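Page 47, continued from p. 46.
Same chain as before, 200 aa.
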Amino acid sequence: MAEISPRYEFRAFAQNFGMVETKMRRLAKCEQIRESSEIYIVSAANSENNTKIRDGKMDIKVFVEKREGLEQWNPRMKGEFPMKTELLRREVFPAFGVAEPDCRREEYGLQQYLDEIIFPHPQLTAVDVVKLRFAFTVNGCIAEIAQLLINGAAIRTVAVEHTDIGAILKAREMLGLQEYENVNYLRAIKRIIGLERLPV
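Result:
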């Protein structure tokens, strides 16, 4: 099988994107609408591994590098619940960068994992994220507008992704996103729940 190249991403968060949304809808037609309910597991000790659970499956992405203001992320692990404790020890807790808890089961269902491991851990927080995503293609890049609820807090996000950095930078210019800060989901969630300060 051919190796999949990890994409670079530019993502911004705001209460309202105004003309950015207008430009995106003028440049391209909405190709798909997706709604999902996800749980992000946020670690106070690590900001380079993005861990989320959707439809009973865990997905961990690791930060690779930052180039020209864009971030590249690569899949590290995909797992499904119930999950063996050995896999949690080998793959999941090293990604969190925190002390491994006392695991008393050989495997954990999703609710057991949350109730017995995540919620009691002093450095880990489970954050509910509801997404309504609208997909577009701008300058050959994957683009999206999404309405979010992060632990009930309403916010919007716009993103542009591609393996070609130049294509993203051009799409960002076409959409009028040059003045927006590039913020990944993990950092945005940490700011909303108070684990990271907002930029001055």
